[in-house]
Amino acid sequence: MTAEPTLNVSIKNDIIRVLLIEDDEDDYMLTKALVSARENANIKLDWVDSYERGLEALEQNDHDVYLIDYRLGHHTGIHLIQEAFRLGCRAPMILLTGQDDLTVDQSALELGAADYLVKGRIDAQLLGRSIRYALRQASVLAEVAEKENKYRSLFERSIDAIFVADEQLRFQDANPSVERLLGYSRDELRKLKPARLFTELDFLRELRFNVREHGQIKDFETTLISKSGRKRICLISVWAVEDRAGLPEWYQGIVRDITDQKRAQQDLILAEKLTMTGKIARSIAHEVRNPLTNLSLALEQLKDELEMDNEYVTMFTDIIGRNVDRIGQLITEMLNSSKPRELERRRQDFNDVVKATLQFISDRIKLKRMRLDVHYSTDDCSALIDKEQVKTALVNILVNAVEAMEEGKGMLTVKTGCTEDSRVYVEVADNGGGITEADRKRLFDPFFTGKSGGMGLGLTATQNIINGHKGSIEVDSLVGHGTTFRLYFPK
After folding, report:
1. 329-360: per-residue pLDDT in tens?
2. Of 65, 358, 368, 438, which is most buried by a Cβ count within 10 Å?
3. pTM to 2 decimals?
4. Which of 69, 64, 60, 70 is nearest to 45 (CA)?
């Protein structure tokens, strides 16, 4: 951030250095006489007689106060004040004119002139008081500007996302951390409707209500959507800044991104659940596999003793054999879903991995007379992944999506892409019945399933594979409209 030029308001030995910019020598002599009065003994007056010399002197910025005549040849004192500010001179300037003109007065003050004096009405006391007042005022403004620069620097450089808003929580100002978090520039944020940042409008309404009702709210947790569509879990704190009457004048707030913290907590919870699942699976495997092996051997022995030409004998032995195999398969699935995945990561085109995975479910989609809409990213989607493991994770998602949709009416949409933070993703959307919020929170829990006959380990295995890649998974669902899964993998 560029700092504002500091004011040159130094007074050595109480001497006030004043420069008169006046093209009329008689007016200079009159001004000199006023300055020479006893009450103005600490004022030292210098003089230049043209606009050009005045501009050179202003550029040098060697005086404490400038007295500027309104008429300076082809130019005016207004023009000189404008040019002085453009050059970075912030010393106080007093405009002198031969007549009382309200328009000139307003123009001078709006441009930053410290005072406006009418020639012929000035006495030594008035001139001295105006000079000293202008100097004190400039000193106060310099102090205010210094503090403002300091706090503006803190605002701009803060790693926390800090913003200023009106009563509707529309942005009035925001620091660069807000811009980085949300992906919008400061100007875009000022024009943005706050509702576009929230996943649900009710969250914004709740935030506004609490701020208006209590004057503040601390650590309000919600999910914000960046310009690129990326969702971030954030804590928002907002408090009112009151005017002299004690009424809210504007609001300031801080946004903290806790997405990674939340993800780490979820990963820890999942790891604990997988550890417990693994213990259960190993216990079941130990207790069940031995008798299951004996049952399988006994069945083979029994087949040798029975008349296998008998239709009923064959049917029942086949039923026993299939269920023995099914139990063994379920035990294997339990063990595989909970143990850490050993990845063989190689850099490859993520689009190719998704294409190969879709081949596994293409027949199922055709048999159920469903439509498949695929959009592959044209960006470089190469990533360091274990192809077979990613295919396994994605198949679980695709199969669930197909089974969630109605035969003959299903529409499966698959899209790949790259994010701004060097990740690739695949989005799988169905138009099935959707998932309730309560079920959505339990989707990846071991043994949780909404399907009859399922073990509820498919999504647990998917989550395990994604965690092994240091990736993440997002789920959006609306009951009666469908569900969308997004699987993210770092490049």
Report:
1. 767 766 666 566 677 888 989 999 999 899 88
2. 65
3. 0.53
4. 64
